[in-house]
Amino acid sequence: MVGGFLVLSLFLPLYLHYFPVDTLLPGWSNFGYLLVFVIFCTICLQILQIQVLRKISAFTVNLSYNLEPVYSIILAMIFFSEAKELSVAFYAGVSLIVFSVLLQSLQVRKENRPS
Fold first, then answer.
1. Which of 10, 75, 87, 102 maximizes the CB count within 10 A of its CB?
2. Helix (H) and strand (E) counts in the chain
3. How far apart (Å, rounded) are the C-alpha atoms in residues 15 and 34?
């Protein structure tokens, strides 16, 4: 996180030179949306992940955790109608992530069945 912050901080003046903006801070309505996404897509899902670790393996939880950006993007598509900017590569990536989560879930279910 610190490395990403430092690298982005170094490139921000260069970016702003070529792509100037009126303000760097979001407006109040955008701040409200960001707050909703932070609470739902990060905090709530992190709490659920910790609770789930009591029942299933860390590998399965981590695999499922990879869906968090997908949730965020889908909510942004719904609230902001941003689906027009997504390419076929995005949908292929989402399909691979969801498919891998389903395969892992099926494998865990098969292993946990009583013999």
1. 75
2. 6, 0
3. 22
CA-closest candidate to residue 74, choices 94, 92, 60, 88: 94
* Amino acid letter, residue 53: L
The 8-class DSSP code of residue 85 comes to G
* Cα 102-96-56 angle, rounded to 5 deg: 35
Q: Please tell me the number of Cα atoms within 13 Å of 70 on its side-chain side.
A: 15
Q: What is the pTM of this model?
A: 0.46
SS3 content of the chain, % helix, strand, coil (to 5): 80, 0, 20
